[in-house]
TrEMBL record:
Source species: Marinobacter nitratireducens
Protein name according to UniProt: Chemotaxis regulator-transmits chemoreceptor signals to flagelllar motor components CheY
Signal peptide per UniProt: none
Keywords: Phosphoprotein, Receptor, TPR repeat
Family matches, as SMART domains: REC (SM00448), TPR (SM00028)
Chain positions with 4-aspartylphosphate modification: D67
Amino acid sequence: MISSSQKGSANPFGKLSYLIIDDFESFRLSMRQMLRSCGADKIELVGHAAPAIQYCTYNHVDVVLCDYNLGEGKNGQHVLEELRHKKLLRRSSLFLMVTAETSKEMVMGAREYQPDGYLTKPINRAMLEKRLGSLIEQRNALLPINREIDRENYPEAISLCLQMLPKQPRYKTWLMKTLGDLYFQLGDLTHAIKVYDDVLAQRELSWARLGKCKVLLANRNYDDAVQGLQQLIESHPDYMEAYDLMAEGLKRQGRLPQAQQALQKAIEHSPNALLRQKHLAELAASNQDMNTSADAWRRTVALGTYSIHDSSEHYLALSQTLSDLSEGNTEADGVDQANEALSILGKMEKRFSDEDGIGTRSRIIQCRVHAGQGRQQEAEKILTAVRKEFEEAGASSAEAGLDYAKTLFRLNHPGDAKKLLADLAQRFSDNPDVLSKIEALLDEPVGFRQKLQARAFTRQGIKAFEAGELDAAADAFTKALSVVPDHPALNLNLIQVYLKQSEAEANQGDLVAKCRALIDRLETLPEQHRQYRRYTALKRKLEGMT
């Protein structure tokens, strides 16, 4: 029966369409009855995630009431994640998470995708009418603004926000937050930061502090942004967006270990965010923390099972990381890592069997896994098949080509690897990211453990040179070059050490000869290489010495 507050033509419930998603039919029917008693009419019921997403693909829904636990397969978080990712919900649509579970892990995971509210079971009609009624009232008041945002007509949306501010003081917080976001999206950073400063002058609100820090980052004011985010996290340790933004700020400062720590702290609070786990995996790898990277890739793969963000690239990255960790390690842990890599590749081939070239990419890594465990014959056998596949189809992507070149280096085919990288450099000449990866692979065409060894010697050499300990510096750089003999920066570092030594010695001949031998190693260095200008400067200096 419709309550007196819902009688008449102004029935906010009756004008909207509803979707109830719950795996228990009795609950679906109960919710429908309660909605009808509130005045709702157009109500669709589904039992699981797949039909819910399909329904939203072909029908506009104003209100989604979705249970968190939907049985086997996707849960409510996955449904919300996919609807947001595919833009199947308009900004004016409401998504309420319905759950009997209130664990922090569940709430934090679901909150990442910003549901409009939560309903905790058991639910009665009075609770539903009060909670949903207030959300519908807000939705209707803000509908003109959200409509323009959905159309990406941001200037008109800003104009409507400014008009509504004096008329709707109860929605001031929403209007100011939306204004800041809209100005930022338009690149109007001056107006954006003014919005956030005006809010913060009256009250310390976490979203306003975050917005201001986002603007500071965009203006390259990294120190103030990071400091502000640190204070925000101290006050609100569950505010996940602050950790993500702080990691970005620390990266831009070049403080990669600290950026990794920020993401690890966020994951302690909210472990179910796939994209954050992926970001951590990539950041840890850039810090050479391969064990942390492997753990984060494992969680990324596991979280992807029912996620719209699932990707074969996650499986490839995990197996590549495990291959690096297991290379040359035939102890029990190394064998386990190698076997895990092969197992992950097998699962990937089944899960993504319809992707072009997925088998080839799998076999490229299998080569390295077997070679790293001393199974050279098996590795070469697989490489023969890979060669044929590449000759027939070529590198379908830069990533595939780079990984193949890495394998060719590992299996002692440097000529083929360099030829392939030269072809890739030509194909992707307008892609600086790919060119940088090609350069890095040419500089250090060795395994992970050898890279660590060379980099440790390099750090020793730089430290010794800065301390004026030239003999120790020369010794350290020589040891590093024994691992990566063609590394341009290391060759140039050693030349600089020898030149510095020659200034204090009467007989310069031997040292200058050593310098010329080192500079000759780099005669094929391409002009695009980041060390090329340094190379030409030192070459001219040596040519001027008798």
